[in-house]
Design a protein that fits this description.
heterodimer; A: seven-stranded mixed sheet; B: alpha+beta; Arc Repressor Mutant, subunit A; 5 strands
């Protein structure tokens, strides 16, 4: 049976807004998050606190918690998209909804399949395929004192080349909730990681043409930007050094990134 | 030697980076990289220089005889034309300001 939120504020099953700032901001996509269970709502608010914003939302996400042992049902704009019995699964599903909308509605930015972190207002961009280890690497960078900018999607303003932060939760072995206050800024270093167990950890420089190809290959919407997209990536390649990073251990990887970033102009 | 006027297709975007040229063809949604030699040929595809003139210009810049590079340049231009990146301006009726290459 599908249960719909009650309009009676005294009804414990009534859908409640998440905290005082009910809007989740995923770049240019915005969501109102309605959760039928207050405890679950509070947990989700904590996990997504870095994305909480204000103002009207373009979409409504509804989470209906089932009876004990039953899955929580997830709907977007009135359409049921799935159900999951685990909290991690629920967060993963929500992140997927946010990501898809962010990509669909944030076309004014050049969107890269990448992670990003910042140190002293210098951003290191980590473009790479799924499974390359970029999410794990960005998690380790943040644990080492870097600021978390984004994971999975990095939005670049094509005019200023600055990164717009999108600090969604990281989902690795567990959910990692970033702290609010993520900043973007200018990209000072580009490092494309690839985890290779037993292969050592070292940086290989790329020439600028290879950097452009790398970034275009890891873009969600490069072709939508046409010739302007090439210009944006070329300016980015001229702005900073680009490397491929073969890594089998995070500690030397972090050290090399920190060293390069500190020496970047 | 084939007698036509190579013109870089106007819709193809090009960015020079450290002597190489990255081309983006929006029609084919593809990216290509030209090395330094290819970039030099590309820069001469202004629609007002014949193939022979282009060969002579490049040979002069390299300080070699035209015959030493003619076959490679002709083959490269044919490959660019077959890929749709270069057209014959005499047939298409477009040209861009000359590069100064002999025509």
């Amino acid at each position: 049976m599908i249960r719909t939120p009650s309009s009676d504020p005294g009804d414990p099953s009534a859908a409640t807004r998440v905290g005082e700032a009910p809007t989740l901001v995923a770049l240019d996509a915005t969501f109102s998050l309605r959760v039928s269970d207050r405890e679950l709502g509070a947990r989700l608010a904590d996990v997504f606190r870095a994305l909480l914003g204000e103002g009207p939302a373009g979409h409504v996400i509804t989470v209906e918690r089932g009876q004990e042992g039953e899955a929580a049902e997830l709907s977007v704009d009135g359409r049921i998209i799935g159900a999951t019995a685990s909290f991690v699964g629920l967060v993963d599903a929500l992140v997927s909804v946010l990501n898809q909308a962010a990509i669909a509605e944030s076309g004014r930015y050049l969107l890269l399949h990448a992670a990003a972190a910042e140190l002293a207002e210098r951003v290191v961009l980590l473009p790479a395929e799924s499974g390359s280890g970029k999410s794990t690497l960005v998690k380790h960078l943040v644990e080492d004192g870097f600021g978390y900018v984004s994971d999975e999607i990095v939005a670049i303003d094509p005019v200023t080349l600055s990164v717009v932060p999108y600090p969604k939760p990281l989902i690795l072995d567990a959910v990692v909730a970033p702290a609010p206050g993520a900043t973007g800024g200018a990209i000072s270093l580009i490092v494309s990681p690839l985890y290779r167990p037993g292969g050592g950890t070292f940086l290989r420089p790329l020439v600028r043409s290879q950097a452009v190809l790398l970034l275009a290959e890891n873009s969600f919407n490069f072709h939508d930007h046409g010739a302007g997209g090439l210009g944006t990536l070329a300016r980015l390649a001229r702005q900073c050094e680009t490397f491929r990073l073969d890594m089998d251990d995070s500690a030397p990887a972090i050290a090399q990134i920190r060293s390069r970033l500190s020496g970047a102009a | 030697m084939p007698d036509w006027l190579p013109l870089a297709r106007p819709s193809v975007a090009a960015e020079e980076l450290d002597g190489e040229t990255v081309l983006y063809d929006p029609q084919g949604r593809r990216l290509l990289v030209l090395n330094e030699s290819g970039s030099a040929v590309w820069r001469c595809c202004d629609g007002s220089t014949t193939v022979a003139g282009l060969v002579d210009h490049l040979a002069g810049a390299l300080g070699v005889a035209s015959g030493a590079i003619a076959d490679d340049v002709v083959d490269f231009l044919m490959a660019l034309r077959d890929s749709g990146l270069v057209v014959d301006s005499a047939r298409d009726g477009h040209s861009s300001p000359g590069t100064g290459a002999a025509g």
